[in-house]
Amino acid sequence: MKTIQLGTSDLFVPPICLGTMTFGEQVDEPTAFEILDRSLERGVTFIDTAEMYAVPPRAETFNATEKIIGNWLAQRPGVRQKLVLATKVAGPSRGMNWIRGGSPDLTGADIIAACEGSLKRLNTEVIDLYQIHWPVRSVPAFGNIYYQPRESEGSSIHVQLQALQTLVQAGKVRAVGISNETPYGVHEFVRLAEQYALPRVATVQNNYNLLSRTVENGLDETMHRLKVSLLAYSPLAFGLLTGKYDAQGLTGADVPERARLKLFESTRKQRWGRPLALTAAQRYNALARAHGLTPTQLALAFCYTKWQVASTIIGVTSVAQLDENIDDWGTTLSPELLKAIDDIRWEIRDPAQ
Known about the structure:
Layout: E1 4-5, E2 12-13, E3 16-19, H1 29-41, E4 46-48, H2 64-74, E5 84-89, H3 108-122, E6 127-132, H4 157-169, E7 173-179, H5 183-196, E8 201-207, H6 219-226, E9 229-233, H7 260-263, H8 265-272, H9 275-290, H10 295-304, E10 309-315, H11 319-327, H12 335-348
Parallel strand pairs: 3-4, 3-10, 4-5, 5-6, 6-7, 7-8, 8-9, 9-10
Antiparallel strand pairs: 1-2
């Protein structure tokens, strides 16, 4: 796998990124170590985490994932220099009162303090890519599809960029990124960075998969023209695009107890638990099988081969899943199959956006 430059930064990463939000919830520390070791062995040297993880978010597992990765790094001298390590500062608490006391804001001081905490937990002196997990502004994200104006918007993008600049100048962060963002947000981050000589965002980490292609409704042009790279998360749509829910539905008695849609009750209600999302997934999964592919192969190849995507974030709970996801790299989709995918989207659109 060739490496890809993230935005205009000096970071070069493989086209597959290991997502770690399961570490500390679905995945215990020994298994996480095995996955991290295997990821490095397979050339997936780009690791993404967040201060909020593990997921589903709970006070008991807040910061757990970063601690596990930090413990792994502490036991693997010399490994850190082989990695591009990314983490995220949580946005406004959104009801999670254990994050900054439930603050509805993300101030410059919050960003700096959060970064200091991540550095300690990760056992590292520098974070390669430091991202804002979700905006302070009111935006249509996490299953919401409409923008709702608010009178009070909290700390400005300019203030957040100034805090990120402090971290970059201190040598604690190499590059910065944003997540769950809109075309306006990307434009504003870049505009202010260029106007005031502040750090330019290298990446946007957004939900992108067969059930949620809204990136292609304008955000992709924004990123292309402004030279900002897309990190695509949830390529398997929370497991819907693996086929595991095709027969029993989203809440059936046969759904495994450790399946995400049983564990992640709040997330299921956001977008993945919509009946139309399952209907669409069943259509794509059947299409995959009709073309001699597994549902997972189709879903991952869709992301792996899209020009919009710089790196696809895969989240796994076992070494076997990791190997399967990496092995799917190189799968090609015929023009006929791509047209069939677009035909389904034209009919059902984006049920899990």
